[in-house]
Amino acid sequence: METLISPSLLSADFLRLESEIDMINRSEADWLHLDVMDGVFVPNISFGFPVMEAVSKQCKKPLDVHFMIVHPEHYIAQTAKLGAMMMCVHAEACTHLHRTVQEIHSAGMRAGVALNPATPVVSLEDIVKDVDMVLLMSVNPGFGGQQFIENTIEKIGRLRELIHQKGSHALIEVDGGVQEETAPRLVKAGADVLVSGSYLFRSADPAATISKLKHLER
Ligand code: DX5
Ligand code: ZN
């Protein structure tokens, strides 16, 4: 399987969203990553449904929505209505994670579970078989442009082992600090999906950067 690329809109120019999305539409990007923050689960606020509805009308790529909020289960129906392909919730934010995953599936979406850097892979032992993706945060969630946390590389290995052991089909997505130096190592370590925000949008030719990330040797 080739690496899937999910550009994070958080680092796009919000004054020129239409042309940023058109660039993504024309590029080799597989998905569009949308970061929803509530100022409670993470110390920052990003955007919500009015913005995502506008984006969904313009974007031709499947939407990969990453909720960094408390009570993401309150927004399952609204996210499905948006036409999202993937709804990803934080394990740390869900008291009844199994129920939330079931509800995401019942709403017709793929279900992803995100882990903060300090949350161990073993915490997914009893749910990994039921999820379509595990998102490993490789920075503390809340901001773009942070430094990559090295421990993520070996965490991918432990997650791959758990996925195999449990017979899960979950994809491994890595989010945070993905750039020129870390991306090749992440792909070699077994990442299936790379999220990239600041590195990608600040590069001279973002579409070319997307292609470069996509074709790294696995
Ligand atoms: C951070 C978000 C990321 C962010 C990544 O909390 O989940 O998706 O946009 O940004 P970079 O690629 O700049 O680290
Ligand atoms: Zn994200």
Mind summarizing the main beta sheet? 8 strands, parallel
Major sheet: order of its strands?
A: 1-8-7-6-5-4-3-2
CATH superfamily: Aldolase class I
Give me the strand/helix succession: EHEHEHEHEEHEHEHH
What CATH first level would be assigned? Alpha Beta
Coarse morphology: globular
**SS-based structural class?**
alpha/beta
Q: Which cofactor or ligand species appear?
A: D-xylitol-5-phosphate, zinc ion
**Structure annotation, total helices:** 8
Uncertain residue segments:
none
Number of strands: 8
Computed over alpha carbons, the radius of gyration is 16 Å
The tally of structural domains comes to 1
Oligomer: single chain
CATH fold-type name: TIM Barrel
Q: What percent of residues are in strands?
A: 15-25%
Task: Estimate the mean pLDDT confidence.
Answer: 98
What percent of the residues sit in helical stretches (DSSP H or I)?
25-40%
Q: In whole angstroms, how far apart are the ends? A: 9 Å
Please name the CATH architecture.
Answer: Alpha-Beta Barrel
Describe the model.
- The protein starts with a strand and ends with a helix.
- The protein is α/β, with parallel strands linked by helices and 218 residues long.
- The chain is globular, with a radius of gyration of 16 Å.
- The model has no long low-confidence stretch (mean pLDDT 98).
- Strand 4, helix 4 and strand 5 form a beta-alpha-beta unit.
- The chain has a single domain (4-215), classed as Aldolase class I (TIM Barrel, Alpha-Beta Barrel).
- It is built from eight helices and eight strands, in the order βαβαβαβαββαβαβαα.
- The protein has an eight-stranded parallel beta sheet.
- Zinc ion binds at residues 8, 33, 35, 66, 175, 195.
- This is Ribulose-phosphate 3-epimerase.
- Pathway: Carbohydrate degradation.
- One of its GO terms (biological process) is pentose-phosphate shunt.
- It catalyses: D-ribulose 5-phosphate = D-xylulose 5-phosphate.
- Substrate binds at residues 8, 66, 142-145, 175-177, 197-198.
